[in-house]
């Protein structure tokens, strides 16, 4: 995203969160520099955590230099999101 300095991008997570890996991979694929900040994700949540939740693919669209994570077609994008949610559900279920 134009005009965003590397120190402005912060990844907020607790050290045991398995879902942050997906975010870190996405940022690296988009070549976005970031600062990793350990925060407690349980209640009460920090103010910075509550106000921060961008979507990497929309924030850092780089005019085709790297691939998009989701298809442009709304139907295909919904299918991709369904399968991502399904995998997340199955990987976290006991």
From TrEMBL:
It is found in: Cytoplasm, Cytosol. Its main location: cytoplasm. Its EC number is 2.5.1.18. The keyword Transferase applies. Signal peptide: none annotated. GO terms for molecular function: glutathione transferase activity. Keywords: Cytoplasm, Transferase. It catalyses: RX + glutathione = an S-substituted glutathione + a halide anion + H(+). One of its GO terms (cellular component) is cytosol. InterPro entries: Omega/Tau-like, Thioredoxin-like_sf. Coiled coil: none annotated. The keyword Nucleotidyltransferase does not apply. One of its GO terms (biological process) is glutathione metabolic process. Belongs to the GST superfamily. Is involved in the conjugation of reduced glutathione to a wide number of exogenous and endogenous hydrophobic electrophiles. This is Glutathione S-transferase. It comes from Zingiber officinale. The lineage of its organism: Eukaryota, Viridiplantae, Streptophyta, Embryophyta, Tracheophyta.
């Amino acid at each position: 995203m134009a005009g965003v300095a590397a120190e402005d991008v912060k990844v907020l997570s607790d050290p045991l969160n398995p879902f942050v890996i997906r975010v870190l991979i996405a940022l690296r694929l988009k070549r976005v520099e970031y600062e990793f900040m350990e925060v407690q994700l349980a209640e009460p949540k920090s103010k910075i955590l509550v106000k921060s939740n961008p979507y990497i693919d929309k924030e850092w669209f780089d005019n085709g230099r790297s691939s998009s994570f989701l298809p442009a077609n709304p139907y295909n994008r919904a299918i991709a999101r369904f399968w991502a949610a399904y995998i997340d559900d199955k990987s976290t279920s006991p």
